[in-house]
Design brief:
By secondary structure, the protein is an alpha+beta fold. The chain is built from three helices and 15 strands. It is globular and about 45 Å long.
Amino acid sequence: MHQQIVMPDGDVAYFPACFSPQESDHYWQALTDSIAWRQESIKLFNKEIPQPRLTAWYGDEGAIYTYSNITNHPLPWTPALLAIRQRCEEVAQASFNSVLLNYYRNGQDSMGWHQDNEPELGDHPVIASVNFGATRRFQLRHKKRKDLATITIELGSGSLLLMQGTTQTYWKHQVPKTAQSVGARINLTFRLIRQNETTEGTESTEFF
């Protein structure tokens, strides 16, 4: 069962129970223990500022991904990541060769408004976003149409959000900070990196 999000210029579907509670608990522990988490910094107003979350990049050899002037060279797949990827590929009916992981330690960890529209992803990328751990608010807003309200989805543990078509062209998305007491959350966004593309001309992302 899934919910198709009604939105012009976009194609987003939400699968609230892509993974069972038992699977979610298993993968949460596996990812917590096995992933090489790091905290990257980006330059903002000539200052190096740590990103408000931990990240990791895994994938096929050569699946290099650049955003916010951070070039990510993939670490090799772990058994847990391969199993999660297989489920995502079955649901999305698409192939993925890489995954960006984000570890939100509490409600103050966040992701600012941005698009996954780097040249390496192609014109109409398919992004499979998986969540384990605490429920966090996910929002989408149209780039040009101010008459459209911001879309808010509460992403629960074991859920899969599938974004495809022209979504990344016309919509931005974020995971905002919250003053509420929330637990830790791990998010995985599976992608297909097109290795013959260039990063020149990429629109700046707002990862704060």
